[in-house]
Amino acid sequence: MKKTPRKTSAKKAPRKTSAETAGENVAGNYPGHADIPGEFPWTRDAWTRATADPNSLHHGLLITGAPGAAKREFAFSLCQLLLCENPGEKTAAKIPCNQCRNCKLFRAGTHPDFHMLTTELEAREGRIALAAQYCERYQDAAARERRAKPGKVIAVDQVRLLIERFSMHAHTSARKVALLMPADRLNINAANALLKLLEEPPANSFLILLSALPGKLPATVRSRCMHIPAAAPQPAAAAEWLRARLPKNDAELAPMLLEAAGGGPLDALKLHAGGFLELQAQFLRDISAMMRGAASALDVAAKFAKHDFPHFVDWLQRVCCGVIRCNAGAGETGGPAAQLGVRRGQFAPEALFNLYDRIGYYRGIAREPLNEQLAVEELTLALRRALRS
């Protein structure tokens, strides 16, 4: 008699690492060449100023600029340049050679003298998969497994480990380089610990902070860094860059994607890759059904709460701005409010402005621990109440 094979229980699939997840989610990656001014022309002036004489750079650097304007790519190329053995020249600016041992190690994600601190959320959802490879050295994998959602802060333990490792001699390069991204996600204890490194840096070391919200950094940290502002592209240049990288059939969507991304072309490219336009269309159908009385506000809020909260409140604020304009008779061409068919006087103005204030409040704390379900319900109900019967 044949033996019946024993049934084995299905094993739970292991959670993917930050590097694996980031590789799936990014719209683009580290450019694949070091000529950042060529890939992102609007960064040319900032790159030239920053790299004209790398030896004269301050040990603490703060790179700032608008979201989606290639700050991350700029920072990664600058880190590679500082580690490169034979930086070449192009016009007045230097670029990494991409041929030396240090460049090859850097691009492979294994350079021992490059250190990176970031949040679990950035490692998981950021544009650059290489960042996820480096940040694994500074993240608590066991704690990450226990959390339902990725962490949103750079913790003090990460900074303390960086201080310990920065005190050691460099391995293969003449310098040691650390990148904190986004630096405004340092919690207060981590920021205070970082001051020690900024005030007493080891020899031949660079500490690079990257932030779109530098005002959230303590003044004591900002004052100890050399500021490198990375300019955002002009709307026409951003649209041209984006159209060249979208599929031909979607090139005409560039202005709409840029509006949704707040003008950042790289964020717009990521939105397109993530199916944002389809998601926005669904959001608008749900709001339209609520306005017609065909769906309850709580049912609509339950759908909204399934999506990324910071992205949702960013989007809702843009919708609210359009609704305010259309409600006042100013009109909107092609925006979400126009797609909703908002008419003049359809909403109570005071209620709309109160809603806008609440959205702004939640945008400010969107990365902090909070009950996102209740927040989405509050905002959705406020939009429904603002509608005049």
Q: How do the helices and strands line up, and which of them pair or pack?
A:
Layout: H1 18-25, H2 36-39, H3 44-51, E1 60-64, H4 71-83, E2 88-90, E3 93-95, H5 101-108, E4 114-117, H6 120-125, H7 129-135, H8 141-146, H9 156-166, E5 176-180, H10 188-199, E6 205-211, H11 219-222, E7 226-229, H12 235-243, H13 254-260, H14 265-273, H15 276-292, H16 297-304, H17 309-327, H18 336-340, H19 349-364, H20 372-386
Helix pairs in contact: 1-7, 9-10, 12-14, 13-14, 16-20, 17-19, 19-20
Summarize this entry quickly.
The chain has 389 residues and is an alpha/beta fold. It is 49% helix and 8% strand. The protein folds into two domains: 18-232, P-loop containing nucleotide triphosphate hydrolases (Rossmann fold); 275-386, Zinc Finger, Delta Prime, domain 3 (Up-down Bundle), CATH 1.20.272.
Commentary on this structure:
- It is a single chain.
- This protein has a 5-stranded parallel sheet with strand order 4-5-6-1-7, sandwiched between helices. It has a two-stranded antiparallel ribbon with strand order 2-3.
- With 389 residues, the protein is α/β, with parallel strands linked by helices.
- The chain folds into 2 domains: 18-232, Rossmann fold (3-Layer(aba) Sandwich), CATH 3.40.50; 275-386, Up-down Bundle (Zinc Finger, Delta Prime, domain 3), CATH 1.20.272.
- 49% of the residues lie in helices and 8% in strands.
- The chain has helices at 18-25, 36-39, 44-51, 71-83, 101-108, 120-125, 129-135, 141-146, 156-166, 188-199, 219-222, 235-243, 254-260, 265-273, 276-292, 297-304, 309-327, 336-340, 349-364, 372-386; strands at residues 60-64, 88-90, 93-95, 114-117, 176-180, 205-211, 226-229.
- Mean pLDDT is 84; it is low at 1-34.
